[in-house]
Amino acid sequence: MSDTKINQLLAELTLEEKAMLCTGKDFWTLHGIERLSLPSIMVTDGPHGLRKQAGEGDHVGLNAAVKATCFPTASGLAASWNTKLVEEMGVALGKECRAEDVSVLLGPGTNIKRNPLGGRNFEYFSEDPLLAGDMSAAWIKGVQSQGVGTSLKHYAVNNHEHCRMTVDAVVDQRTLREIYLPAFEKAVKKTQPWTVMCSYNKVNGTYAAEHKQLLDDILVKEWGFEGIIVTDWGANNDRVEGVKNGQHLEMPSSGDMNTKKIIAAVENGQLTMAELDKSVARVLALILKSQASLESDKVEADLNAHHELAARIAEETCVLLKNDGLLPVAPGKKVAVIGALANSTRYQGAGSSKINPFKLEQPLDEIKKQFGDDNVSYTAGYHLNDKEDSAEIAKAIELAKQADVVFLFAGLTPKYESEGFDRQHLNLPQVQLDLIAALGEQLNKTVVVLQNGAPVVLPFVEKVPAILEAYLGGQAGASAVAKVLSGEVNPSGKLAETFPANLDDVPSQPYFPGTTKQVQYREAIWVGYRYFDTTKTKALFPFGHGLSYTNFTYYHLTLLSGDKASFNENDSIKLQITITNTGNKAGAEVVQCYVGQKSSSQPRPAKELKAFEKVFLEPGESKEIEFELDYRAFAYWDEAQSSWVAESDEYQIHIGSSVEDIRDTATVFLNTTVAKKQPNAALKAYFEPEKRDFNDAAFTALLGYDIPAPTPITPYTVNSTLGEIANEPLGKPLYEGMLSVFTQMMGGDQNDSAAEADRLMAESMVADMPLRNLPVFNSQQYSEDQILQLIASLNNKETRI
């Protein structure tokens, strides 16, 4: 959008209008200025489908949304490792937004999976920033190709749900740069999302919504972000500080509360007109970009075609974790389908991303299509509400005895993983484990099909010959599973996250999710496979793992560039490898390229993913895959220099089918301008991650300053939460009142398990809500003055806090 048009509009706007444009009109729309022909535009939830509210606009219940296509969630999408397919999905999402006059779709979820217990992990792509960044960029590119904006979220360091609205994430700068920011950086630089959504939490003591380093210094100035920075819903802390430090739009509407604060700040000199205009100009640009689509011809979304696309995507999200020859199952076999999830499928996560699918497949129906009604029998085996039922287990055992093969559906129901709260363990529901144990001798002919959004531990892994991870496959996931089981589709998914054998093996676990006020990222760069691979800690299934019904052979790894006599920021290394399908079935392989430094002066992982390519091959077909690795592929972040640094050293380039299944390795010596430093003895604990002794002294040395003390619970402030005052006589009515409001907002589902998830989400969101948000989410009952008076009373003070 031209600067001339923006400047012309800025000149015509009043101060009041400028301040108004920096906050929402209501829950889902922005203010327009009718006299200037600026429309009010609508934003709405994604990211695996369109969640446009019908009627009341502040509900998250499933039945409150318009019918749309429900695609696989991000955890499954990333397992496809297919950016072209993700881009196709983005195009379909963009068309559905256009059909509903939605201008910005809130997604993709790009945060790193620091710990497998993160309640919202199903909505995020990976534990690896390169893969998460490539997936995010593809999603954004597809959506925005349709003239619809996106909102890259949640920026930044938002890696768990517990107390997410006020918790302070304490993380060192190197870890921030190497683990938690690169996915956002790649997406911004490759695709320029129309908006970036800042997270609720603090980062190193400052709320993300007013974090100058994150918003203005890094995102805008360093990465060149051109769009607007919008708060997550209710993430605004200090509106004026937000505007000063690069936050452009507050959502949802706070009425005129914060508009008045902006006006007053300009009038008293706290905020300059130039500072305000920076925010307003970006909001104007967003409205003008959106206006072009809103005024163009109406788009009709072909939902049936999108269903077929959802099915194709789901086929590639399925990961064959284990197969001792039982799969694929030939036609004519007598199949017993066991598990309530086979007839009441878990196809998406719980929370604000819930889509109302216009069509929904069930695995049992699709298996009957593949194997014939007469060959398929079914029993639930367990109840979704976790009620014990020995009679149902007995029926399952008898059914299994009569079958040639058993397809047992297991997984996590909504109450085990949802936005709003974190998981408590990695186990499957006990009723499912009891059923599997009871099947005993029938397990040798059993395929376990998993429906879950994040890793689970599998105590029966050695007792069953085949395990298929279906993730949360969307509305067409059932047919994808059935086709994989029958062999009509050859599975090609690869894990985008480590499945640990035990929760205690996860290096962040001792510090996850922290206290109500602070979470310390003591494990630093040792996240996911970077830890498991470097320390040789045995995973249940490693990052990048996924089996096929065919075989792939790698050979002739060649460094096209040879050794580098000199290597700097403008240089790159090119390499080539040939891959052949040596089996008898067409299939796809994800060729993964990892880099490791031989003897760094800094703690560094043995391998880090630096490139990948998914290749489809017919039986006997070969293809040459070429990768180009730039300077940064070999570099670490040097905080002292505030730059990426690659030391002169020997580096190994690994090509493999997973981080553990390396097929070939090449060694290259890079002669850079950077000499190795003397290793910092204070960081010894990080050079020896297998000991996991990330003590106070080591973490202090990593941070470069003393570990900050958590914010005390009392005295109470505007950032005290309803949960913290719930036991106070004055606080209890507020907590219970807001719980009633949020419980109604969660309504809409009939399923018992989903209703339980809604209840848990409501309780968690209300308990974590800071008092400053009461006038935002329930302005009819609470004003800011009332809240300040309440805080003064809670603290037994006459003066306001």
From TrEMBL:
Matches recorded under InterPro entries: Cellulose_deg_GH3 (IPR050288), Fn3-like (IPR026891), GH (IPR017853), Glyco_hydro_3_C (IPR002772), Glyco_hydro_3_C_sf (IPR036881), Glyco_hydro_3_N (IPR001764), Glyco_hydro_3_N_sf (IPR036962), Ig-like_fold (IPR013783)
Residues covered by the Fibronectin type III-like domain: 589-659
GO molecular function: beta-glucosidase activity
Superkingdom of origin: Bacteria
A Pfam family that the UniProt record links to this protein: Fn3-like
SUPFAM superfamilies listed in its UniProt record: (Trans)glycosidases, Beta-D-glucan exohydrolase, C-terminal domain
GO biological processes: carbohydrate metabolic process
Signal sequence range: none
Keyword annotations from UniProtKB, A to Z: Hydrolase
Family: Belongs to the glycosyl hydrolase 3 family.
Protein name, as recorded: Beta-D-glucoside glucohydrolase
